[in-house]
Amino acid sequence: MLAEIKGINEECGVFGIWGHDKAAELTYYGLHSMQHRGQEGAGIVVSDGKELTAHKGLGLVNDVFKKAKFEELAGRNAVGHVRYTTQGGKVIENVQPLLFRTQTGSMALAHNGNIMNAHQLRGELEDEGSILQTSSDTEVLAHLIRRGGQRTNETSISTALNQVVGAYAYLILKEDRMYAALDPAGIRPLSIGKLGDAYVVASETCAFDQIGATFEREVLPGELVTISDDGIEIRRFAPRGGRKLCAMEYVYLSRPDSDLNHVNVHASRKQMGVELAKEAPVDADMVIGVPDSSISAAIGYAEESGLPYEMGILKNRYVGRTFIQPSQELREQGVKMKLSPVRGIVEGKRIVMIDDSIVRGTTSKRIVKMLKQAGAKEVHVRIASPSIQHPCYYGIDMSTRKELIAANNSPEEICEIIGADSIAYLSERGLEQAIVKDKTINQGVCMACMTGRYPVMENGETEINYTKC
Amino acid sequence: MLAEIKGINEECGVFGIWGHDKAAELTYYGLHSMQHRGQEGAGIVVSDGKELTAHKGLGLVNDVFKKAKFEELAGRNAVGHVRYTTQGGKVIENVQPLLFRTQTGSMALAHNGNIMNAHQLRGELEDEGSILQTSSDTEVLAHLIRRGGQRTNETSISTALNQVVGAYAYLILKEDRMYAALDPAGIRPLSIGKLGDAYVVASETCAFDQIGATFEREVLPGELVTISDDGIEIRRFAPRGGRKLCAMEYVYLSRPDSDLNHVNVHASRKQMGVELAKEAPVDADMVIGVPDSSISAAIGYAEESGLPYEMGILKNRYVGRTFIQPSQELREQGVKMKLSPVRGIVEGKRIVMIDDSIVRGTTSKRIVKMLKQAGAKEVHVRIASPSIQHPCYYGIDMSTRKELIAANNSPEEICEIIGADSIAYLSERGLEQAIVKDKTINQGVCMACMTGRYPVMENGETEINYTKC
Amino acid sequence: MLAEIKGINEECGVFGIWGHDKAAELTYYGLHSMQHRGQEGAGIVVSDGKELTAHKGLGLVNDVFKKAKFEELAGRNAVGHVRYTTQGGKVIENVQPLLFRTQTGSMALAHNGNIMNAHQLRGELEDEGSILQTSSDTEVLAHLIRRGGQRTNETSISTALNQVVGAYAYLILKEDRMYAALDPAGIRPLSIGKLGDAYVVASETCAFDQIGATFEREVLPGELVTISDDGIEIRRFAPRGGRKLCAMEYVYLSRPDSDLNHVNVHASRKQMGVELAKEAPVDADMVIGVPDSSISAAIGYAEESGLPYEMGILKNRYVGRTFIQPSQELREQGVKMKLSPVRGIVEGKRIVMIDDSIVRGTTSKRIVKMLKQAGAKEVHVRIASPSIQHPCYYGIDMSTRKELIAANNSPEEICEIIGADSIAYLSERGLEQAIVKDKTINQGVCMACMTGRYPVMENGETEINYTKC
Amino acid sequence: MLAEIKGINEECGVFGIWGHDKAAELTYYGLHSMQHRGQEGAGIVVSDGKELTAHKGLGLVNDVFKKAKFEELAGRNAVGHVRYTTQGGKVIENVQPLLFRTQTGSMALAHNGNIMNAHQLRGELEDEGSILQTSSDTEVLAHLIRRGGQRTNETSISTALNQVVGAYAYLILKEDRMYAALDPAGIRPLSIGKLGDAYVVASETCAFDQIGATFEREVLPGELVTISDDGIEIRRFAPRGGRKLCAMEYVYLSRPDSDLNHVNVHASRKQMGVELAKEAPVDADMVIGVPDSSISAAIGYAEESGLPYEMGILKNRYVGRTFIQPSQELREQGVKMKLSPVRGIVEGKRIVMIDDSIVRGTTSKRIVKMLKQAGAKEVHVRIASPSIQHPCYYGIDMSTRKELIAANNSPEEICEIIGADSIAYLSERGLEQAIVKDKTINQGVCMACMTGRYPVMENGETEINYTKC
User: Fold this and answer.
1) What is the pLDDT, as a whole number, of residue D459?
2) What is the 3-state secondary structure (H, E, C) of B269-310?
3) In terms of Cα–Cα distance, which of D126, D129, D157, D127 is closest to D144?
4) With an 8 Å Cβ cutoff, are C131 and A142 in contact?
């Protein structure tokens, strides 16, 4: 299973709301706040109690909805999705929520995660005569739910969920109810909030703040939540087990203002910086962070170390999709892209450069070179997480093992490759301490990409100790 | 003159390059780095030695040039412009550089600043039969240069410049040379750099870093610079006087990595924070800055005060032009726009909130309210510049006097209006100390909008003491 | 069955080619020549022997393919489709060819016609757990072919075709072969041509002329044609019966340069005019035709009657989709839309106005009024086909019975409603004589919309006399 | 002067209306009906009595105005323009009406024609210090009107008109009046109509029919018409002379339903066919016309000759701007473009093919070949106008002399080049007889491109005999 990385990996965001007059608009704002989770496509499906209506498109949430007529997306209930795709499937058909219509009713699906046995399930379905329209894993679940022609309800959904293996947060919308489900290891984040009488479900709590909703509770591993005009009901489709929430959500993926499983992301990042300063101090003139994701850790490092925090690297806010990348020739002549060093700050200085993680190493190499060309005397690289040496099978696209610089090089080699004066990573224990604050609330994290210990296997085996339902 | 603000004010950025094979592309990158100076339109005019070719459009630099064919913008010499307009003139005709063709040769003009006697000059020209095509002040200079049918050369340009009164940085491109001119008080910034053998001129030095060029010298007040394949020549069209570089360029307008008149913008802002902490300390738990322009000052304040710097307000990076503004109803229900508070950070805390300046006060009021709703116990507002009480006539659009909150209210009243627990501004002296580091190099600043002391009057009178040429 | 018209009716065009290096481009030109058959959407699916690639979109063929990269549509085999939809389904999902991918191979379907028992078949499929993605009848056939998971081959296709009832011409593309099938009554047109060694299949022969191919043979009622690199094979999936080719294809729908079932459309229309002149002569000054479809009949009428043919009505060639329709107020003031009378021609004249058919009567009324306002002394309307009094169930969208003027009014009443001086229709016998030239080649036509005699019923009953296979 | 053709030639259409609530919308419809006169750009300028507002764009009238907000084009008075450009100037700046704003008032200009001394006038203006913004001749007139700073009124316009030499129809709009002017030889068409109390001016009367207006009178050669709320006044700025209306307007350019100088275009074309049948009869089976402009002449030829008129060539209505032109390879394999032969009609037949004119001969050659490949036995080409051997200096773009096939080849050579069985042209006398019906109303035509006799020379000399004013 570990031999190679699966073709299509996704990191996405889901949002759902039940029982609000402005359901579609609020879903738009909710998705907007989670734009960082997926920039390839976005969609909203609304239910007015009688039928489902969809608006989807390729591109950013703003682009997709700038011409949307929200009055045509009428209905008090909605689910939405932002999508990230790494290859191939950048086509409108794959944009979620997927909407399935039958003569007896419709169903919309939104999914964040990765189904490890999707290929096998798809083959079984096709052997039985099913025709799948997309290359998306998500469609497999819809066919599993409808297998045998049965209705879409708690039973058929639970049966279907027990056939899929992987990491997932699902939202399912029908005319008269909405379902939310989280995988048995709780690898992906999913929270429930309230806005007045309306229920809200989202991948990140920043979506609640965005619309003025308040956090209610986490969806726990193995739970199937049913929300309708009759209220909320929570069932369990898998035995209760220890949570393994993706550590990379804290390190890099989530927004600093989100709380994941009761832990604020900015605070955890700042603490990673603090731990890093304790573990790997440097005699230097200043601390700088690679914008934007490493700023929190850099501030933490600065505070703990007593060194001044400076804005030594600037991120150009206007570098977007239409930015014309400089040719190799111009890059070599010194034309900058997204990041530029601030010569007035770094010239002649010994610098601690904080980055949240290193994947291929190419960006780190470019930044170190840039800082040196701008006159930095020394550049000490400090990484606010352990080194990434293993692929992810749970929905994060992170390059193949071959491309992971830390899978093939020692820290000393990496230091030389990127041209730094020294390098150090945060320890596994340091990362865990920065995230897990309260042992009483099941705050375990998945660090498989750093440790190689995978909590869920494709054959359904797991290292999670389940208690009985 | 002070009774009302002129209709069309502009804050723009200019860029020119002479003698590089990739002139148009480098101008694109140069303009891109100055995108913050003008987002309404952009343009490039190229000279291949024989004729001028233009590409212009409304919108961001990326949008304007994403379909440009740079091979059709061939030529080793170019000028470019990014434009900001406050009213009316958001039309393609006004996008610069303006290009004027005659049977004997062409001329392109790019302009940053404001001509105070433009209306009067336009009237005189029209009485003589001239037809002006745009509502832009810049066209007036072109007609002045051609008045009497004379050629475009140092003499005709100097004569024309001596007729206009105001703040300006001009770039003029002809087939065989480029001119750069700065107003006699040097209110606007303009620097000269080199990239190999090529000469570069730009409003901000961040454009030099962007393309790998190095700073050479400032264009000094009253200078007319001529660049051609024969090299560079510097003349003076007005007597030498004390410089009055716009203080708002340091406080808010320029990019932190630019050096204006030998002073780094980030460093000056951080120093404003330091001075502010000395002048107006607070007993609080943390310092936060309003993103992005106040971050440097907040870090300075934190360092000087010993309080931790925290990321208490988050700026949504995806709020762009196509963002659908929430309705009043949704805003009142709590839907956020560009900025959101980080509840996990600010809850229960006493906060020093650093902002670079206050104009109308509405943003400050919204942020203070947002922080309080997110649980902040106290919010102490500290402004890293003196209060703005007077209009600007030199090219910065800053609202009418009626709208300036500080023109009509005492600090105490402002504190109450915006709902803060306390408020304090940096003093004039503090601001000057944060900017002017080296008295030997003519680093005077214009603080007219804060002090009401205008260095240049519409009738040509001035408070600048000129020395003889 | 006749009580009301089925919701979604379609008139479309299909095109297929097997074995040509420029398969996709030739399909583009073939579709382009059949643009009149469907203007809502267009698509091409190409097979390179290993996999199928699609390019589809809403709008005209030109619009859909103007940005297509034909080099990405590589492959020597292709099917294409132009689509017309009357309601609801104007969505990209319904644009054909529909493409179905499974792990064992892909299949593309293009369809012209209407399946009368689609609703019932869809219900059966869904009860068995199938999920259909579109509201298109065409998808039903795909699921029937895959029912039970069997492979897509002659047997599974024949079995599926025997379950559908209606009028249809299907093209099915797989990696290694292409199928063409025509309904047992041959209601829709479908012809086979050759271009060098390549085989071509199209709804109309004008597509052959467009690409330089030559006509080979008709696909006969009930035939299933298989084309592969091994050549062409023709099977029969239904017993041989009398052909009932849609008469409206000759009267109005097809292009004048097409030959349908060995009869040229322009020639048949001119002959309709000749027959009409014999049956319903008028004492008048000139003959005019309503552009474009009635010009041939008008010329025939003129020749037979000896009256001059004149261009009394002009069609504005630039009235397209973006034409801004005049408001009711402006129309009443005399602002014209697509057609305008030529005052200089019709003023003071007695006119025979030839139209191919009358559906609602509103257009005829407007044209007669227009001619009279332009000074025509008399307007005698002559219709080159029998009156339409019955709905079509075979794929032609023709309004409900309630809207058909001839279903509810006598010719005298119609004459009064449209304000003509006299009216006459071509007889059924006259229409048949104009089309059926050669009794030896099974040239029977369906005139159900004129006579109410339907050759195929929804329950599968038929009035066609089949001979044994 | 005859040595080479002037660079920028134009054939355009102008429209003006004074005193109607829906001025902008009616101008849209008027321009739409004259779309054939110019397809590169379109524009409307409206006056509400106080100021002028413009909406202009590149492309077809529909494209330019599909997003226009007519409520923002408020005002009871408007002028519009459709533009055709042959080279270079396909830029938004050149799209008319040109709008000139000064502090004392604005002026809009729309122009159809060509100014022969534009280059010289432009040079004089620039020597005096004027800056012209466009490469359009039209701007020259604006500067001439304002020369010396005088006001825009009858006197300044007359003075300016007397400096320009060429063929022109001008519309000038000010806040409080509209002017219309026609060149002293009346080479271009211009008519006045009425719509209720409103006055309408247009290049072709089809614009009057389009909006329901009625023809009032021609603008006569050398007239300056002033229209305001006080009514209409007609002055003369040049002596009265014989009219020389462009014959090509009848032969090819104008719409068949227009009346030019009291002669219907379709009727004149049909008569050209009649004259041609008399002059050059053929023993053949049928007459066909090249769509669309030769249909009228073909019908005339058929009627006079007694041969049947057939639809032997079909024009694809969907070949527009976005049509993908077939590659040379595909064209050689037989892929058709805009025109296709109707094999069912022409196969085995002797054909008279009527065309309105021959310029380069390449189209004729392609059509003859196409007909022969479709099986035509003989193709006899008959041209419904004399051969074009001379360039046009009056605003019609017609290729350089080098490219004119008739300038360099005898009819026999042309016949061989295009592969016809015979060829014949209409005589000059035949053309004149087909157009000039009523010798009492000054119906003289310019046939300079056929005869080489130019009615107006660049130096102002003329062959027109003027009577005294």
Assistant:
1) 76
2) HHHHHHHHHHHCCCCCCEEEECCCCCHHHHHHHHHHHCCCEC
3) D157
4) yes
pLDDT at A405 over 60: yes
Q: Is B127 on the interface with D (CB under 8 A)?
A: yes
Of C256, C303, C340, Cβ closest to residue D209? C340
Residue for token digits 């039928």?
A51
Say how far apart CA A382 and CA A397 lie, in whole Å: 23
Tens of pLDDT along D1-48?
Answer: 222 222 234 479 999 999 999 999 999 999 999 999 988 899 999 999
**Mean pLDDT score across all residues of chain C:** 89
pTM for this prediction: 0.81
A411, pLDDT greater than 60: yes
Q: Which of D101, D143, D149 sits opposite B127 (nearest CB)?
A: D149
DSSP string, A423-458: EEE--HHHHHHHH---GGG---EE-HHHH---SB-T
Topology alike, domains A13-238 and A263-431: no
Listed by number, the residues of chain A in 141-160 with a beta carbon closer than 8 Å to a beta carbon of chain C are 142-143, 146-150
Distance from CA of D122 to the nearest CA of C (A): 36
Supply B207's token pair. Answer: 């454009």
Please judge whether D209 and C317 are an interchain contact, meaning their C-beta atoms are less than 8 angstroms apart: no
Name the least confident of C394-398, D174-178, D180-184: C394-398
> Which of A 240-269 lie inside 8 A of B, CB atoms?
255-257, 259, 264, 266-267
3-class secondary-structure state, position D123: helix
Q: A168 and chain C: CB distance < 8 Å anywhere?
A: no
In terms of C-beta density within 10 A (0-12 exposed, 13-18 middle, 19 or more buried), how is residue B66 classed?
Answer: middle
The CATH number assigned to the domain with range A13-238 reads 3.60.20.10
Distance from CA of B330 to the nearest CA of A (A): 8
Q: Is B33 annotated as a binding residue?
A: no
Lowest mean pLDDT of B312-316, C91-95, D141-145, name the range: C91-95
Q: Does residue D438 carry a pLDDT above 60?
A: yes
Contact criterion met (CB below 8 Å) for C149 and A131: no
Interface of D with C in 349-388 (CB under 8 A): 374
Q: How many CB pairs lie under 8 A apart between chains C and D?
A: 180
Is residue D296 predicted with pLDDT exceeding 90?
Answer: yes
The Cα–Cα gap between C150 and C129 comes to: 16
Contact check, Cβ <8 Å, A100/C129 = no
Return the beta strands (E) in B231-390 as ranges: 231-236, 245-246, 259-260, 263-264, 286-289, 313-315, 339-341, 350-355, 378-383
Burial of C433 (0-12, 13-18, 19+ CB in 10 A): middle
- ∠ CA D58-D61-D65, nearest 5°, is 85
- Please write the tens of the pLDDT for every residue from A88-114: 456 777 889 999 988 888 999 999 998
What phi and psi values does residue A348 have, to the nearest 5 degrees? Answer: 75, 10
The two beta strands, C214-218 and C198-202, are unpaired
Tokens of B34: 């100055």
Q: Smallest CA–CA separation between B188 and chain D, in Å?
A: 28
Is pLDDT larger for residue A173 or for residue B149? A173
- Partner B contacted by A60 (CB < 8 A): yes
CB < 8 Å to B149, chain D: 126-129
pLDDT at C2: 25
Please report, to the nearest 10 degrees, the dihedral formed by the alpha carbons of residues D405, D409, D414, D415 taken in order: 160
Q: What is the pLDDT of residues A229-238, one digit of tens each?
A: 999 999 999 9
A/B Cβ contact: 3+ pairs below 8 Å? yes
Domain ranges of chain C: 13-238, 263-431
Question: Topology of domain A263-431, per CATH?
Answer: Rossmann fold (3.40.50)
In whole angstroms, give the CA distance from residue B228 to residue B248.
33
